[in-house]
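Troubleshooting log. The previous run stalled partway through. Resubmitting the same two chains, unchanged.
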Amino acid sequence: MELGLWQVWEGGWISAILRGAAITIALGMASMAIGVVIGVGCGLIKWARIFPLMLVVDFYTSVVRGVPELLIIYLLFFSSVEFVAQVAAAFGYEGLAGNGYAFTIAVVAIAAISGAYSTEVVRGALAAIPSGHIEAARALGIPGRRIFHRIIAPQMLRIAVPGMNNVWQTTIKDTALVSVVGLQELMRVAFVGAGSTRHPFIFYLIAALVYLAITLVSQGGFDWIERRLRPRTRK
Amino acid sequence: MDLELVFLAVPTLAKGLWLTAILTIASVAIGFNLGLALAVMRLSKNSAVSGFAKGYSTVFRGTPLLVQLFLFYYGLGQLSFVRDNAVLWWIIGDGVHCAVMALALNTAAYTSEILRGGLISIPGGLVEAAQACGMSRLLRFRRITFPLAIRQALPAYGNELVLVVKGTSLASTITVLEITGHAKRLMSQTYAILEVFAIAGLLYLLINLVLITLIRLLEARLTRHLPR
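Second attempt completed without errors. Output:
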């Protein structure tokens, strides 16, 4: 049975796949970084029940978590094409740099999704901090800003790590979805390779293995972070 | 919002709603049973059996659903022994069948993790008491272990159901015209992107609301003996 392994090697697809994987990882990391910032901001708003903003955050998280990621990506890509062209023209760019534009919109889309899930993780972590800790700090007269830095943030960070691991795993898998709008990440490279060599099986198998490698390695990384953040107890 | 457009978009997207519901129900029905089997296998003392279940869960949870879908639909569809086998080709050759298979295999992995958590949480004394009453293994599982495990796992399983509903949207990438497939088509035909998104999004939120309500009702029924 001809699987097409030779064509993968001969056609220089290995390096194309590795480039795609690099874009996937960069896209995942950029989106996750922005998503965490969104998550901390919105999570704090939800936790502290800041009135009008809370409603906006509730709307955002329930829409983004309830509607398919693919639909959100279509919305952002289709509606942004014209807008981005106008912005680019205003800054004096004529032709849009294809991949740069696709990458930017992809980051916006994936960050919006991971931000919604991060919000829930941060809110849950904040809710898990015993309220006595904060009350005790208030009783000692520690100013609000320092309570956040010294009491709330460190505990929240430790409690949120396993949840953030889940969000990261979902985020890296969601990046595959932007291939449908043409960004040359791992999944898109596999798609193009499958089409031009007519050996889809081997290309999608390789893509699956690369994704698996990424998720397994990052799982190890998160396990390490979790061990580091575990409170040191006296033996 | 353009009213004429709404009259065009709503019936079209409602057609897709039907297919989304079928995809969800079929893949959940298969995926739940498969997931239950995997969860029981995972707790087996035989390391080959539990190792297989663990490997299955790692592979299917570690790769994107889109890759799995394309690997089955385009990848397996390329292989001649799949094309020559009538049963396999019935599954792989058709977009809807293939999407159901991919979704079912994918949700089975997540379901197995959720149910495993439920199975582990059962106090050993309950199982021992059932043994002492002389219940057979199967009876014990049916009367004691499974009902307790499912009660524990139900809230997490509700989240998984929402993920399956969202996962059905990927079927649109292999020519199945469910809600997202129709929505994409309407977006490129009418350029009324936000309106189409809003209607399609509402349909999805509606499905999720129905599912979550059903799960809540089931949960209330299973815990009706507990004080509120």
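Takeaways: Residues 132 and 188 of chain B are 66 Å apart (CA to CA). Chain B is about 85% helix and 0% strand.
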